[in-house]
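User: Fold this one for me? It's Ribosomal protein S1.
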Amino acid sequence: MMDNQNIENNENEMSMQDLMDLYDKPVRIGQIIKGKIIQLDDKEAIVALVGASHDGKLVIEEATVDSEGNLTEVLELGQEIEAKVIRRPQENDSFFILSMVEMHREEAIRDLRAAHENNETVKVKVKDAVKGGVVATYLGQRVFIPASHLELHSVNDLSVYKDQDLDVNVIEIEEKRGTTRVVASRRKKLQEDRIAQEASAWESFEVGQVLEGHVERLTDFGAFVNVNGVDGLLHVSEISYGKVGKPSDVLKVGDELKVKIIALDNEKKRLSLSLKALQENPWTRIEEKYPEGSVVLGKVVRFTDFGAFIELEPGVDGLAHISQLSHQRVESPSEVLTIGETIKVKILDSSEENKKVSLSIKAIES
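Assistant: Here's what I get for Ribosomal protein S1.
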């Protein structure tokens, strides 16, 4: 029978053997290994590895996907880390080469698969614009976002997304020949955000409100102005008191402007806006601005059988009756006037209530 001393010696010997086995066990490529940083500078760290015959080396490119900074801003001397072994010691380099980026890439793929299965968003950072879309990264894993999935509208300049953080949904993830292909989309998140924003906006809209907006698109009959995430119609007749041939004559896409809500239909989701409603009505105090007997300049804007309309200011056209065009008999206004011509006229009468100004050309002829 063994005495207690022999049993204790055997246990000690087993413990020593286990320890030796630990250090004799070869470190494999791809193995996740622990260690402590024993030397650190801006570009690389030396790591004392647990269970390895050599120390490890971790360069900044393998420590973080953002390799433009300083490694001392990412790691600390004495810090314990885990990293993947990507190269064994060689004759000219006695270190195991380590990578935290590759270790995180495995974690990234697990996260991206989970996000795909659970229909959740992940935040990625755009690194570059390429043909057909942009390349982003998530914990070092490449993620491709097609141009058609970046916005709810078409995108012309993909370079504006460089270095941006985007919330995306994973729409495709595929293993092929040892690599993982990940395709993501931002459209679904934007659509969900828009729906929520529009619902909130419709609850707050009231007729008479004045809101900041920007022109989204132009048509022949008006402009669509986005206010609080909702597109409202600014009809051409509501742009100005003056004559507007088509909206593109006075507005362009992207213009920022204040508009007033003049009508809304919550059920049909129709919003009518006005710029004109925020401008002073040019007929206000018309008798003061154009008193009877005064002589002013005007522009000939259109003809009728009974006379010519002369624009005194945007929104105010006065009528020079055919009998007031000349001392000579006139059969048609075009005999004595030209559209676009600037002429002197005399105010015969003006009325704010009736929105009328009567003019005479012959009254100032010598």
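One thing worth pointing out: The longest helix spans residues 4-24.
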